[in-house]
Design brief:
The complex is a heterodimer of chains A (114) and B (116). Chain A is mainly β. Chain A has no helices and 11 strands. Classes of the chains: A mainly beta (114), B mainly beta (116).
Chain lengths: 114, 116
């Protein structure tokens, strides 16, 4: 079955540690995205990538980094510079980067920083 | 700037009731797209519908229907004869040229609780 996988589902880290969230898709989509969701809020875009080896900052990129070395993979690193990293992180992909393309979402990773 | 407003934070209904989720948007684009997503308790967002700015026809899919009105910048979602399985958070979203490619602007979501 085609889809998006994110691992792990739950992640606990100590304050000050960097942590990397995995996102893999087998939909052959060119574009991939990372969103952050906080309780009672909508999704906010962290980073997006329209093609391999290229990515752009979203609305809340500070304290995060990404890479796009393969079409299928778009890992997100939450660095120690992110002041409030505890949140639910969702990865998504779409066929292209046109505004008409619906995005398909993974199951999410819930990160808790202790 | 683009903005999506979902004023209803939480709605509770009894099974079989009809319920309408409101969505109001702001954009300067003439071409834009509106979306509805469902987020069940598992967390994964599920795509429900896309509507482009030039197509104001209402759409019906089973118990779901959508009413798009450009005159009031609204894209409301109605569930007829609600069921417990409809309990979820529903997000309205907007994309257009101003936002940059396929960047989605989400509303804050409406939590729908359907009780027996």
């Amino acid at each position: 079955d085609g889809g998006i996988t994110q691992s792990p589902k739950y992640l606990f880290r100590k304050e000050g540690q960097n942590v990397t969230l995995s996102c893999e898709q087998n939909l052959n989509h060119d574009a991939m995205y990372w969103y952050r969701q906080d309780p009672g809020q909508g999704l906010r875009l962290i980073y997006y990538s329209q093609i391999v080896n290229d990515f752009q900052k979203g609305d809340i990129a500070e304290g995060y980094s990404v890479s796009r070395e393969k079409k299928e993979s778009f890992p997100l690193t939450v660095t120690s510079a992110q002041k409030n990293p505890t949140a639910f992180y969702l990865c998504a992909s779409s066929i292209g980067d046109g505004s008409y393309n619906e995005q398909f979402f993974g199951p999410g990773t819930r990160l808790t920083v202790l | 700037a683009q903005k999506v407003t979902q004023a209803q934070t939480e709605i509770s209904v009894v099974e079989k009731e009809d319920v309408t989720l409101d969505c109001v948007y702001e954009t300067r684009d003439t071409t834009y797209y509106l979306f509805w997503y469902k987020q069940p308790p598992s967390g994964e967002l599920v795509f429900l519908i896309r509507r482009n700015s030039f197509d104001e026809q209402n759409e019906i899919s089973g118990r779901y229907s959508w009413n798009f009105q450009k005159s009031t910048s609204s894209f409301n979602f109605t569930i007829t004869a609600s069921q417990v399985v409809d309990s979820a958070v529903y997000f309205c979203a907007l994309s257009g040229f101003t936002g940059g490619g396929n960047k989605l602007t989400f509303g804050t979501g409406t939590q729908l609780k359907v009780e027996l």
